[in-house]
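seq/struct pair 1
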Amino acid sequence: MKAKVITGLFTVALTITLIGIVGFAQAQDKSADNMEIVKEKIRSDKKLLVATNMQLTESEANAFWPVYEAYQAELAKLRDREVMLIEKFAANYETMSDDAAKNLLEDSLSIDSDHQKLRQSYLAKFRGVLPDTKVARYYQLESKIDAVMEYELARRIPLV
């Protein structure tokens, strides 16, 4: 168990580092190919963290991974919206108007709401392929990863 925790912490730390690289790479190089490589590395590290900590049987794994991949595809759409929101913020940061701030806040709350709806909509799908204890574990892992990502974003983005 201790090795899994260490592996998980290493993976989360690597993900944080890669998030920083993504931000730096976006500022330095708009190349879509480079960004896709970084995004794929983050996805694979996240999958490793999940695989290491889920303790799935072979039959559970066969049922779980397709649902996981579908969920991650939907989650990626929300992450793309977050990136666009951050880009809007960056574009308006120096001259933020009340209207721009209002729109950014509404967009942010909409993304948060859609994330919660996505989590809720996939709950039955995950329950259909795993026992509730493993579904709860998976949702805990997702929450921990989200918390790390949210912290990193909060740390890097200045106040309006």
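seq/struct pair 2
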Amino acid sequence: MSVLRCIKCSKEYPLDKIRYRCDCGDLLEVSHDLAKAGVSRELFDKRLGTLKWPYSSGVWRYKEIILPIDDKFIISRPEGNTNLYCSAKVSNYVQHDNLCLKHEGENPTGSFKDRGMTTGMTAAKMLGAKVVACASTGNTSASMAAYAAMAGMKAVVFIPEGKIAFGKLAQAVAYGAKVIQIEGDFDDAMALVQEASKELKMYLLNSINPFRLEGQKSISIEAIQQSGWKVPDWFVLPGGNLGNSSAMGKAMMELNELGLIDKIPKIAVIQAEGANPFYQYYKGGFKEFKSMKADTLATAIKIGNPVSWRKLEKVMKWCKGVVEQVSEQEIIDAKAIVDAAGIGAEPASCATVAGIKKLKEKGVIKEGESVVGILTGNVLKDPDMIINYHNGALNGLKSNYANKMVKIKPTLAEVKRVV
């Protein structure tokens, strides 16, 4: 029912052979025979809330259009089933009422990566892999290490030295991965892990892996199901390696073909100003893609040479989507608001909220349009940045919404003074 298909020349390959690229050099994606999928809203609704494995997973609930595979291969925690939050505080900040935030930080290892890792690791088991590998700015390594431990596989992680939040690094170490720090940034790590995986027969689980993105499709499918199959006007999410936004678009294309949705939502991808190669490509009319040296405190999207840019180009043209950039100040201020709303998220997640605010101010998002923003990671992924922000210790940036800690003498009078 499914094959690997090149996104450029459409050449097809079987699923049961390890392959990440076409012979022409471009990326592959999993292509399903949707006419034979036999799915419906009723089928997915029947599985919603079930305790039956594997359908208790917010990924494997949609198994027929994610990865139709024998259950014996599935590695699941389970993942997904993340909540939608409608916050008056956040809505007031962005000046838009019809807004919900889907919090992927509620996944088992604290980020959306678990949705892709369950399918990627399942494919690894199906293909007989013994060692899995990835390059990571943090979330991918945490997720892969956890799922590899569950599957009984060895995990090897390549990270940029000194450029990964400790909340994420700690997870990879705790779950037993072999962590290799390299001198360079994420893009250097990505180049090296591809070379090493080929030479050392390690199964690569970055978003270049087509099975990874199939799992990540479930974010938008689940959001629509949670809304009673009512499609929002906008999905807004951060853009780093661009796999998540590509997966979201692929999901919408497939749901549209299946007749499970009645309109096509627009997708807005938000990049940090210091890591914005796809924004520049979009602004240039998709004429020439150029990589860059990325620099942003939102480490999860600190990527200057994203793997999935060509996949996302196809998506943006199909849904008439937009790409926006936001500054470091806009990101950290949006984060302070999301955190203070009791929701909380890592910096890259809050590029979403900063982007919604900017798009509303520009009139791109219209009054009354429904918006679902994706928060990609847990608030504790980067705790150092939180404390530095509220203490006014982020160089060159203002703590506009600081919640400063207060030191007092241990007396009731002092408590009365500061409370």
